[in-house]
Amino acid sequence: MPTVVQHDADLTALNSFGVPARAAHFARISDTDELQQALDFAAEQRLPLLVLGGGSNTLFLGNYHGLVLHVANRGIQWSDDSRRVTVAAGENWHDFVSLSIERGFYGLENLALIPGLVGAAPIQNIGAYGRELADVFVELEAIDLQTGKHHTLDKAACEFGYRDSLFKSDPETQWLIWSVTLQLQAKDQPDTSYAALQKVLAEQGDAQVSAKAVFATVCAIRRSKLPDPAELGNAGSFFKNPLVSADKLAALQAEHADVPHFATDSAKLVKLPAAWLIEQAGWKGKRRGQAGVHEQHALVIVNHGHATGEEIFLLAQEISASVLNKFGVALQPEVRLIHG
Ligand code: EPU
After folding, report:
1. What tens digit of pLDDT does each residue of 190-201 get?
2. Are residues 9 and 94 in the same domain?
3. N or C: which end of the chain has fewer CB within 10 A?
4. What ligand 1 atom has the least distance to the C-alpha of 194?
5. Ligand 1 atom at minimal distance to the Cα of residue 271
């Protein structure tokens, strides 16, 4: 048995919900040799694989019976002339964003304080305050876990969508993202077009807004309404914001004149805030045993201390059934559910 593989590992500290779960086999991967050893072991034992970064978007519904690959490679290559940067998947996302701004590599300020590791960012094309990863993305290096081969995938190949990418939807290949290359800017010209951000910046009286100011403001907004997983287990938004047709919006407006909605890239579809639907259905601040809906933000499901993954999942199911019943809108989880 290779030394990189441990058995019966505790995953409680490796998922931001803080729910109890164990992995039958577990390997912390810092370099490609360790990865190869782990892949050989999994092939020999015919084990399924689960790639785990910071565990900030994952809900374990029980113990995992296969081999968990915990990505832990490090390193950042800054190209000062071109403002391109290649960053290892195992780096912490927020620490990287913070460093990039200090170094004068601008463009990630709106994406501050998103929990998790760099390697997870492309999987759901992380986004916040009007920007998403795809806006600055150039390419990534990923490993096909069946063959062990490294591939470079450009932006088109990654098929980015709203909280979506090839890595969520590819039925053929299981990928492990190894590093990500981004094109950032020397020019300090942040995007402040997102209404909620603009409002706070205006209240602060910032006329000439710098990337550093946007970074600080985004951190402050997030801290004011999203719970810190170190204090209250959670995975940010539990559901995606649903896309509905203009006809569906009109039908909803006939009964709820004030339903908030946002335009999308498609003229036919509008985005509804799942948080609003959940709050209107009466869930904000509610508890079911140790699982609950956050008091400050209805889209965040929290672990009040000793919830199991199953308990959190049952609450999520109850919420989506009640939203479907009240509004005829189906909610899809944003969080990755691991069934064991
Ligand atoms: N709202 C409510 N009740 C609430 C909270 C919000 O009715 O308790 C309504 C308000 O109308 C508000 C609207 O929902 O205007 C949108 O709320 P917010 O600006 O907080 O954004 P969101 O749509 O809930 C999305 C992302 C967040 C990201 C924020 C800011 C998704 C699924 N979530 O949330 O991302 O930080 O926008 O850009 O797209 C995450 O993915 O984990 C995440 C936190």
Report:
1. 999 999 999 999
2. no
3. N
4. 38
5. 23
Q: Whose CA is nearest to atom 20 of ligand 1?
A: 297
pLDDT cut 70: percent of the chain above it: 99
- Domain residues for the domain of 240 are 233-338
Residue 57: closest CA among 239, 271, 288: 239
Q: What are the tokens at 199?
A: 């409002």
Residue minimizing CA distance to atom 22 of ligand 1: 273
Quote the longest CA-to-CA distance of the chain.
Answer: 64
How far separated are the first and last CA of the chain, in Å rounded?
Answer: 23
CA distance 275 to 240: 10
Query: 128 in ligand 1 pocket by Cβ < 6 Å?
Result: yes
Assess if residue 333 is contained within a domain.
yes
Q: Is the CB of 241 under 6 A from ligand 1?
A: yes
Ligand 1 atom 33, closest CA:
237
Asked if the structure places residue 200 within a domain, the reply is no
User: Which residues are marked as active site?
Assistant: 163, 237, 334
- In the reported structure, the alpha carbon of residue 338 is separated from the centroid of ligand 1 by a whole-number distance in angstroms of 24
Q: Is 305 left (phi over 0), alpha (psi -120 to 50) or beta?
A: left
Task: Tell whether ligand 1 has an atom less than 6 A from the beta carbon of residue 297.
Answer: yes
| Nearest-angstrom CA–CA distance, 90 and 102 | 20
- Token representation of residue 239: 């559901």
pLDDT digits 0-9 by tens, 130-167: 999 999 999 999 999 999 999 999 999 999 999 999 99
Instruction: Say whether both 85 and 175 belong to one domain.
Output: yes
| Residue at token pair 């100011």 | 213
d(CA 169, CA 81) in angstroms, rounded, equals 36
Q: Is the dihedral of CA 248, 251, 256, 258 positive or negative?
A: positive
Structure-block tokens of residue 113: 């304080």
Atom 16 (ligand 1) nearest CA: 273
